[in-house]
Every structure is written in structure tokens, then in C-alpha cells.
């Protein structure tokens, strides 16, 4: 019996992964560090604590890491967020899940100050019961901290929960917390990278008409 759905936001409900990557590249460039877009793009879904050392061997607690991360946030919020669009049928999917009685909890690696505007863009912020962000965790995905925090907010055991996400980091983080994942291709990852998910769909528009036959039907 599934009673709670944990939801990633970036890439899953909002078409924002490329925008995050562009913001990171701009912030690195301003700091005099040249990084390839594709390298950064492959890390979207991780938080700054994972992306900075992976891409540029910089710790997020270093002064340089904090400066780049803060600047990335400014660039994303001011230059990219106004352009973002929801994934097709994101709000309709949330409404359908809510109608079925699921507890809905955002489980995002986004910063808290970015999460609410992103949920507003998705069009279903009011449907969520709780939200968790990178501010609620010591380490971001693929560590399971955010998933554990989301489970606590849902008051639901891992065995009665399913994650919906779009990156291999969502799948790994949820798996390490004992939660199964339904994955979306709309975040830009291949089925091979998402292979540990229990089901893969193109996006909200693909899962919505197939809810009854899905693992949460």
C-alpha cells in the first residue's frame, strides 16, 4: 500500500535543468574558472555540496565555493527563473495524485528560497502537504538525507512511499533510503542511467493517463 509520493521538482515538475547548468557555468566563468556545459549538466540534480567538488574540485564550504554557489543562485533566480515553464501536465498529475489520497511531499535539492517559486511555476504548490529542500539536509542527492527528511514530514515509512524524479541521483538517493522510484525521461537522462527505477515514463504527461496501470495505481 503506497500512501506517500515524494516529488523531485527541477526537471521533474519544472523544465529547469538546462537553466541550472547555464547559471552554474556563468558563475564559474565570473570566478575565472572555465567548465564545460555538458560536464555541469551531467551533475544537475546534485546540490552544490556535490557539484562543486565534482566539476571544479572546490569544496562548498570554501570561500570560493560559497561565492560561486551564491552567485549561481542570483543568476538562476534573476536571469533564468522568469523564463522557466512547467513540465507538461505537471499540475494535473499533482491533482490526480492528491485526488487518490496520497500525501505529497517535495523532496528537492533546490535551496529553500528557490523551491517555492519553482513549485509556483509547476502550478501545484497548493497541492503539496510538505516541502523539503537542501536546507533540510546535511548532504544533497545522491545522499539519502533529503529523502529521510521528506519521509519524516510525510509521517510515512519508506515501504509505503514512492519517489518521482528525473535523475539517477533521485533514484540512488531514494534507493539508499529504501524508497522505490518512478523516473521521468524529461530531465534529460537515458533509460540506462535510470535503470534502477521501478518504472520510467517520458514525463508527467505520460504517467498521468497511465496512473491506473503504474506502480502507484
What does this structure look like?
The protein has helices spanning 17-30, 37-41, 48-56, 63-80, 90-99, 112-122, 145-154, 168-176, 204-207; strands spanning 4-7, 103-107, 130-132, 161-165, 180-184, 199-201. The longest helix has 18 residues, at 63-80. It has 2 domains: 4-15 and 85-213, Rossmann fold; 17-83, DNA polymerase, domain 1, CATH 1.10.150. Strand 2, helix 6 (112-122) and strand 3 (130-132) form a beta-alpha-beta unit. The chain has a 6-stranded parallel sheet with strand order 3-2-1-4-5-6, sandwiched between helices. The chain has 9 helices and 6 strands; from the N terminus they run E-H-H-H-H-H-E-H-E-H-E-H-E-E-H. The mean pLDDT is 96. The protein has 217 residues and is an alpha/beta fold.
Keywords:
41% helix; Rossmann fold; alpha/beta; 2 domains; 6-stranded parallel beta sheet; DNA polymerase, domain 1; single chain; 217 residues; 6 strands; globular; 9 helices
What is the fold's blueprint, element by element?
Blueprint: E1 4-7, H1 17-30, H2 37-41, H3 48-56, H4 63-80, H5 90-99, E2 103-107, H6 112-122, E3 130-132, H7 145-154, E4 161-165, H8 168-176, E5 180-184, E6 199-201, H9 204-207
Parallel strand pairs: 1-2, 1-4, 2-3, 4-5, 5-6
Helix pairs in contact: 1-4
Give a concise summary:
With 217 residues, this protein is of the alpha/beta class.
Amino acid at each position: 500500500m503506497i500512501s506517500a509520493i515524494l516529488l523531485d521538482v527541477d526537471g521533474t515538475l519544472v523544465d529547469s535543468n538546462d537553466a541550472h547548468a547555464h547559471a552554474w557555468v556563468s558563475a564559474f566563468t565570473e570566478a575565472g574558472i572555465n567548465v564545460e556545459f555538458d560536464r555541469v549538466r551531467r551533475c544537475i540534480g546534485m546540490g552544490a555540496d556535490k557539484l562543486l567538488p565534482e566539476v571544479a574540485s572546490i569544496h562548498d564550504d570554501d570561500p570560493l565555493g560559497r561565492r560561486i554557489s551564491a552567485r549561481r543562485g542570483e543568476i538562476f533566480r534573476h536571469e533564468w527563473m522568469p523564463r522557466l515553464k512547467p513540465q507538461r501536465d505537471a499540475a494535473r498529475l499533482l491533482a490526480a495524485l492528491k485526488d487518490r489520497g496520497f500525501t505529497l511531499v517535495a523532496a528537492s535539492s533546490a535551496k529553500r528560497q528557490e523551491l517555492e517559486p519553482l513549485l509556483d511555476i509547476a502550478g501545484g504548490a497548493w497541492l503539496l502537504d510538505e516541502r523539503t529542500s537542501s536546507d533540510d539536509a546535511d548532504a544533497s542527492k545522491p545522499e539519502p538525507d533529503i529523502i529521510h527528511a521528506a519521509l519524516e514530514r510525510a509521517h510515512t515509512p519508506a515501504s509505503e512511499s514512492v519517489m518521482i524524479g528525473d535523475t539517477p541521483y533521485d533514484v540512488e538517493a531514494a534507493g539508499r533510503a529504501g524508497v522505490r522510484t518512478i523516473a521521468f525521461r524529461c530531465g534529460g537522462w537515458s533509460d540506462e542511467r535510470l535503470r534502477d527505477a521501478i518504472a520510467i515514463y517520458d514525463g508527467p504527461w505520460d504517467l498521468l493517463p497511465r496512473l491506473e496501470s503504474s506502480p502507484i495505481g
